[in-house]
Specification:
43% of the residues lie in helices and 20% in strands. It is α/β, with parallel strands linked by helices and 346 residues long. It has one domain: Bacterial extracellular solute-binding protein, family 7 (D-Maltodextrin-Binding Protein, domain 2, 3-Layer(aba) Sandwich), CATH 3.40.190. The strands form 2 sheets. Strands 1, 2, 3, 4, 5, 8, 9 and 10 form an 8-stranded mixed sheet that branches. A hairpin with a 2-residue loop joins β4 and β5. It is globular and about 55 Å long.
């Protein structure tokens, strides 16, 4: 190649390089995050995950949000691969990760102080190996709040008075009919989106829901003048983020879990504000003996459900440890005979 040809090739290379620098750089394909929010794009959780979307950009991950007011349709889309990740209630997440899904179990987390401790632990790198289960990884969670029994008759204020009464239950959770049978209630298996319709049209006598959905499902219609809300948290709901393995960078899960931990106080404030907005006349207060009976009965049943493969024993043991660190006087926290001997007591 003569000198003139070399010069022409060099000039062509410089020109091509200059043109390429002016063209927009093609970005990596965005991942689809399917968000469950009963109120759609106007809901608090969709708004929260818009902030999450911005945070993910800082980690080099582009995310598109797609909201689902119907959690069954969201689950179908996630399973089919339409969603690279999805937010879902912990009971639903249990089908993807039994360890984290067992947080949303009856009578295991007593209050928001304990719930916040659980959120801290779940974001710890020390527990990161438990966040992965098969083809899925739990990449974060936030509290939704305590779930209460909303009843159409104030007489239904105890385990005894709930016997023979119809209760709406999630038809895809095979453990729920077992719980209903244990307490002699009559299960009516429906989707979450049907809870409001069934309760408001007297097809069931009570539902157990976090108050975050009380207004969305218009449950005041079913409560009417005779019903109310039993002020005894039955369980604590969480919203968990579940992702398909391999869809995100290797360090994405831990970054995501740590970021979601920073949203805990905001999420708890939403739950507290919702509870504070309830008309005081609707609350039905449970007596201490009834609370103790519920705890003893439920924790006994949970042990059976662990043996049947519905719940993770490691998580339930962890939750008990947290309860006992906050209230050592509870009967369940008394040391066993073996533990007392190890401690040097007769």
């Amino acid at each position: 190649m003569n000198k003139n040809n070399k010069t022409r090739h060099a000039l062509a290379g410089l020109l091509l390089g200059g043109l390429c620098s002016l063209l927009p750089v093609q970005q990596a394909q965005a991942q689809t995050f399917c968000v469950f929010d009963p109120l759609g794009q106007g809901g608090d959780y969709y708004s929260m995950f818009q902030d999450y979307q911005l945070a993910a950009k800082r980690w080099g991950v582009q995310i598109d949000l797609k909201v689902y007011p119907d959690d069954q349709k969201l689950d179908d889309a996630f399973k089919s691969g339409e969603c690279d990740m999805a937010s879902m209630i912990g009971i639903r997440a249990r089908t993807y990760n039994q360890f984290t899904g067992s947080i949303d179990s009856p009578s295991t987390v007593e209050n928001y102080v304990e719930l916040r401790e659980v959120m801290n632990l779940m974001a710890s790198p020390k527990l990161s190996k438990y966040m992965v289960s098969g083809d899925y990884e739990v990449v974060g969670m936030v509290p939704v709040g305590a779930a209460y029994a909303v009843v159409n008759d104030r007489y239904i204020n105890s385990l005894e008075h709930g016997a023979g009464k119809r209760i709406a239950m999630m038809k895809w959770d095979k453990s729920q009919p077992i719980m209903a049978e244990y307490f002699k209630s009559v299960p009516v298996m429906v989707d979450i989106t049907q809870f409001g319709d069934y309760f408001n049209h007297n097809k069931v006598d009570f539902v157990v829901v976090p108050l975050a959905v009380y207004k969305a499902l218009e449950l005041s219609k079913g409560v009417g003048s005779k019903g109310g809300i039993v002020r005894r948290p039955m369980l604590q709901f969480t919203m968990q983020l579940v992702a398909h393995n391999g869809k995100f960078p290797a360090d994405f899960g831990q970054k995501s879990r740590e970021y979601m931990l920073t949203q805990t106080d905001h999420a708890l404030s939403l739950a507290r504000n919702m509870e504070a907005s309830i008309d005081n006349r609707l609350w039905i207060y449970a007596v201490r003996s009834e609370v103790t009976e519920w705890n003893n009965s439920m924790r006994g049943l949970l042990n059976k459900l662990v043996q049947m493969g519905f719940y993770d024993k490691r998580m339930l043991t962890l939750l008990k440890r947290i309860r006992c660190s906050n209230d050592k006087e509870e009967p369940e926290c008394a040391p066993t005979v073996e533990q007392a001997r190890e401690a040097g007591h007769p």
